[in-house]
Amino acid sequence: MHRRVVALAAQGRTAQQILDAFVQQHGVSILMAPPKRGFNLAGYFVPSLLIVAAGVVLTLVLRRWSRAAQPAAPGTNAADVPASPAELERLRRELDRLSG
After folding, report:
1. Would you say 52 and 39 are in contact if contact means Cβ atoms under 8 Å apart?
2. CA–CA separation, 18 vs 10, rounded Å?
3. Which range, 6-10, 12-16, 52-56, 91-95, is most confident?
4. Residue 17's closest CA among 26, 8, 30?
5. How far is the C-alpha of 100 from the C-alpha of 54, rounded, in Å?
6. Which helix (DSSP H) or strand (DSSP E) does residue 67 occupy?
7. Contact (CB, 8 A) for 1 and 9
């Protein structure tokens, strides 16, 4: 292929004429990048659209997960949970044992 390009260049053909000769002989698939027209446009736009769609889906999923991780009632805290005096004493003993 390289020799053919050199031979065509030696004949005085321009770069576009050399490309046209290869496309005529081998078809559009010989080109490094397809021409930007017709169905070939999908090769240029579909990857970008898929990346954007994946970003939107990821954002929606992460928002849903973060909302699910938040407590159901924002006003509740540990002081509102009823515990018997025996449970509180056992908790104090365990905390003392762990810290000291």
Report:
1. no
2. 11
3. 52-56
4. 8
5. 51
6. helix 41-69
7. no
For residue 76, the one-letter residue type is T
Place of tokens 């390289």: 2
Q: Does an H or E element contain 22, and which?
A: helix 15-26
Please tell me the distance from the alpha carbon of residue 87 to that of residue 55, in angstroms, as a whole number: 48
The whole-angstrom separation of Cα 72 and Cα 69 is 9
Cα–Cα dist 26/20, whole Å:
10
CB 30 within 8 A of CB 23: yes
DSSP state, residue 74: T
- Output the CA torsion 45→46→49→50 (10° steps): -150
Give the SS3 label for residue 80.
helix
Write out pLDDT tens, residues 10-40: 999 999 998 899 889 888 878 877 777 788 7
